[in-house]
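To the wet lab folks,

You asked to see what we're planning to order before we commit. Fair enough. Below is the target structure as tokens, and below that is the sequence we designed to fit it. If anything looks off to you, flag it before the synthesis order goes out.
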């Protein structure tokens, strides 16, 4: 018999795919039902200056699994509400900065403990809000807990990033210190509403900045639950502020003169607009830490283990319905194995269970929105019009399928090599196939896109592996992983840095160099 005590259950990560999770499923199933009955459909106020606020335009957020269900009523912050949040953050900032990094990481550890105690509840909310499978939702919350603890430990290990320097005069004291910028706006996406929201927010907070946090309008429920953890951990009033809403709220936040820096995860178009308008459009440059998606090619060499490669590509291309910035959406196959690989992958994709992600056996849930579904349908039509072969891609109907946008994953072969579907980020369960004879030439073709987030390879040839590691233009590289060809990064294990159009900086999240970007350097020279 499994011990159903939550603390005794195994942790779910993105890589431990073969562990016995029967006890986890038994417990989590009950939590999902409880959260569906108890937490959906409520008013979820913003939190500004230490107080809940119902100001702003109310809106309902539908559950993508069954759009007859409301996730709750939220309140889109307009310019007045955004101004109140920024004003509160600025007022709270000086005391928060002076409180010291030791106190700040202490509160961060408390927030991690609170989230860990509530992880099944938050994971259930994430599942219902995004349409994630059970394992994806639980893995994300575990990642968020590790993110908080990892960044807090980094601040501690580096002694707050202050260090003494050499002296030109024995009477002088010279120090290198890191200071917060002031008020950071954190703008998060729908697809990882727990891990990405907390990863950006906790770094800003630990560094001594106050925060105005805007979750995706489709992710206000988890946004509020995360805010509760931070507030209950003891953050002073105004240090962390929650404002919900869509693009108008985001635009008001980006345009506010009281914002000193922005941490953003989302599309390339929006990220670059923020960089051009906010980052360098004012009297002086301001930090924009943006992760902006990718195309994420996978290369399968002639020597690859096909079972491993099929597993990795399947999970990376179709996990979370392909709605990941790191999803593999183009695969390059050596022509010697291309036919066999496609047949195996198509059979594996056809066997995937598409349905209610609250059910244990479900691998793929619904697409997040009508806009994503329209993009999927147009892409299928464009592939067919170009003479390509479309495997899968059916729209599902009947029963629950009539109340959400459910599709079967699509695999596209025979598409012209220069077609836009090979280049554009699609953010849906849509994989295009190319073939090659020479791996170097394939990598060059894979590099010839605006993005550079992740890439994967399957090969048992050491020279090919070295060639991939040396020439692939992406910040995150994987080789021969059954758990994910291009996905599955974890705090302190893989860093997550976007090259080219996938990011605005040279240092990514989940690693040691992300946190310092939320601070600026200052030199102190003091004569004694």
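Sequence we intend to order:
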């Amino acid at each position: 018999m499994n011990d159903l005590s939550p603390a005794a259950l195994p942790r779910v990560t993105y890589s431990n795919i073969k562990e016995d999770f029967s006890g986890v499923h038994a417990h989590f199933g009950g939590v999902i039902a409880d959260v569906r009955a108890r937490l959906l459909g409520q008013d979820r106020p913003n939190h500004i200056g230490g107080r809940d606020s119902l100001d702003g335009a109310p809106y309902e957020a539908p559950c993508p699994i069954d759009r007859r269900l409301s996730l709750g009523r939220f309140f889109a912050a307009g310019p007045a509400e955004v101004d109140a949040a920024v004003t509160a953050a600025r007022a709270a900032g000086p005391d928060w900065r002076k409180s010291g990094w030791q106190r700040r990481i202490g509160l961060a550890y408390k927030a991690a403990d609170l989230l860990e105690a509530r992880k099944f509840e938050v994971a259930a909310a994430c599942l219902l809000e995004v349409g994630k499978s059970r394992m994806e939702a639980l893995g994300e919350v575990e990642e968020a807990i590790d993110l908080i603890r990892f960044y807090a430990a980094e601040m501690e290990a580096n002694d707050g990033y202050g260090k003494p320097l050499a002296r030109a005069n024995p009477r002088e004291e010279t120090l290198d210190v890191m200071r917060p910028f002031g008020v950071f706006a954190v703008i998060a996406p729908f697809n990882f509403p727990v891990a990405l929201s907390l990863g950006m927010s906790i770094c800003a907070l630990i560094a001594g900045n106050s925060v105005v946090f805007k979750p995706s309008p489709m992710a206000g429920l988890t946004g509020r639950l995360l805010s509760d953890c931070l507030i209950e951990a003891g953050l002073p009033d105004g240090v962390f502020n929650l404002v919900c809403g869509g693009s108008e709220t985001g635009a008001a936040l980006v345009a506010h003169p009281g914002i000193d820096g922005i941490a953003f995860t989302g599309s390339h178009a929006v990220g670059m607009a923020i960089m051009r308008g906010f980052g360098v459009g004012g009297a002086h440059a301001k930090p924009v830490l943006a992760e902006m998606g990718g195309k994420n090619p996978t290369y399968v060499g002639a020597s690859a283990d096909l079972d491993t490669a099929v597993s990795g590509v399947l999970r990376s291309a179709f996990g979370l319905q392909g709605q990941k910035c790191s999803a593999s959406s183009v695969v390059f196959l050596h022509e010697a194995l291309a036919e066999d690989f496609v047949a195996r992958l198509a059979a594996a994709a056809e066997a995937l269970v598409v349905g209610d992600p609250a059910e244990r056996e479900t691998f793929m849930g619904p697409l997040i929105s009508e806009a994503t579904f329209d993009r999927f349908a147009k892409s299928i039509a464009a592939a067919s019009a170009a003479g390509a072969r479309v495997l899968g891609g059916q729209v599902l109907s009947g029963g629950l399928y009539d109340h959400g946008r459910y599709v079967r994953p699509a695999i596209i072969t025979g598409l012209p090599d220069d077609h836009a579907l090979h280049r554009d980020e699609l953010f849906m369960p849509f994989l295009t196939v190319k073939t090659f004879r020479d791996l170097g030439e394939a990598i060059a073709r894979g590099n010839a896109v605006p993005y550079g987030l992740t890439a994967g390879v399957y090969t048992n040839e050491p020279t090919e592996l070295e060639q991939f590691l040396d020439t692939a233009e992406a910040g995150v590289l994987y080789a021969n992983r059954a758990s994910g060809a291009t996905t599955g990064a974890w705090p302190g294990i893989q860093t997550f840095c976007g090259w080219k159009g996938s990011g605005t900086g040279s240092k990514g999240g989940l690693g040691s160099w992300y946190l310092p970007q939320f601070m600026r350097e200052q030199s102190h020279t003091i004569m004694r």
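Structural context that might help your review: The mean pLDDT is 96. The chain has two domains: 35-292+506-527, 297-491.

Thanks,
Computational group
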